[in-house]
Amino acid sequence: MTEADGFVNHTVAGLAEPQPMYKALRESTPVFRAPDVVVLSRLADIEMALKHTELFSSNMDAVDLGNIRPLIPLQIDPPDHAKYRRILDPLFTPREMARREPGVAQLVNEMIDRFADRGECDFHEDFAVPLPCTVFLQLLGLPLEDLDQFLEWKDGVIRPEGADGYEGRHDASAGVAQQIYDYFERAIDDHIAGPRDDVLSSLIAARIEGEPLTRHEILDICFLFLIAGLDTVTDSLDCFFVYLARHPDHRHQLVEQPDVLPSAIEELLRWETPVPGVARVAMQDVEVGGCPINKGERVSPLLGAANTDPAEFPDPDLVDFRRNPNRHRAFGGGPHRCLGSHLARMELRVAMREFHRRIPDYEIKPGTELTYTAALRSVESLPLTFPVPVS
Amino acid sequence: MTRVAVDADRCVGHGRCYTLAPDVFDADEVGHSIVFVEDVSGEREAQAADAERNCPEDAITLSP
Lengths: 391, 64
What we know:
The structure holds two protein chains of two kinds.
Chain A: H1 3-7, H2 19-28, E1 31-34, E2 37-40, H3 43-51, E3 56-57, H4 80-88, H5 94-116, E4 120-122, H6 123-128, H7 130-140, H8 147-158, H9 169-193, H10 199-205, E5 207-208, E6 211-212, H11 215-229, H12 231-246, H13 248-256, H14 261-272, E7 280-282, E8 286-288, E9 291-293, E10 298-301, H15 303-306, H16 341-358, E11 363-364, E12 383-385
Helix pairs in contact in A: 5-7, 5-16, 8-9, 9-11, 12-14, 12-16
Chain B: E1 2-6, H1 16-20, E2 25-27, E3 33-35, E4 39-40, H2 42-54, E5 60-63
Antiparallel strand pairs in B: 1-4, 1-5, 2-3
């Protein structure tokens, strides 16, 4: 087995530092045939695949999360895709997210209050996990006491137990998926009975060419939100804080030059690429970089490899918080560009700003061995220690 | 003066331009880019150039 084979076990194994492997793949086999997926690692190929949905579809054959209908809008390609984005994008614009920012800042501070006096926390468990999940519940207008249930469900479909390779995934996650559908059925009924200022009420009120969304369409959007909105910000927070704990100079820059924060977030998104790859399926026989890919084969554009490709990024291994330009693809690109990117950016910005304002110095508890999860890059636990802030 | 244009067929709403160049670009109701000052010079031109360099979809063009 080559080095690349070992790495590309179901696209991406849980690696602490995947960048050297991205480089190895890009330089040796930029179109890499793993047992159940073809991995693309050059930015030019990845960009092409993301743009050409007629060649590389994001439909239900690309990834199986136990769902019984296509997730909307992820698993619907253009042209139908656009009609859903037209009603969903307005709910997640930077302006709309700015409206939510004070509430998120308050939430972040309440979470920090719970551990600041202890001088230690498990950043993953105490912060990175509950923050995006709580924001999600507030945004959709769901009861906060459902938090633990949601955490169980999202892990059940993203990291199903007993799923061995692609083929086992559906059976492993179908039971949980059904519970998710049932939950949102009830939530939709509840919101029809009592509309309010939240995303679920907006979906119920939305019209496409004068017609409301069907019940199935609303369910398929909610399901997508659950798998796309919870884990990814957790992954980003974990990756970022591990990096900052281990690179005090970068952390000090954030504390001393607060204006660098927005571009620091873009650079950390580039370097860490918390969602290292996305899933596509070839719609016809096609050739990429001289390598034939057959119709029906699964293809994974490796976003992390695109983000460290020297063809686009001079000195790609240098983490420069003022890097400019920075055309990273951490949120993908083309029609399926991450719907929640501005929500993610807002959550990350508020979390980084408030955390470093209150706890500017921290380190990973000595002796800790970090375990990264596969596919989406969170760590299983991140114990941090820090001086207790003087209040 | 430099003329700024956004190709609406390419823009997918990354939002980098109106973040980096708020005096030149704005967001429409779905978060896609619109140019609200088409002819720019000085500080606005520098902003527009920054946005052009940072657009992941190559949707922005500057022309004399």
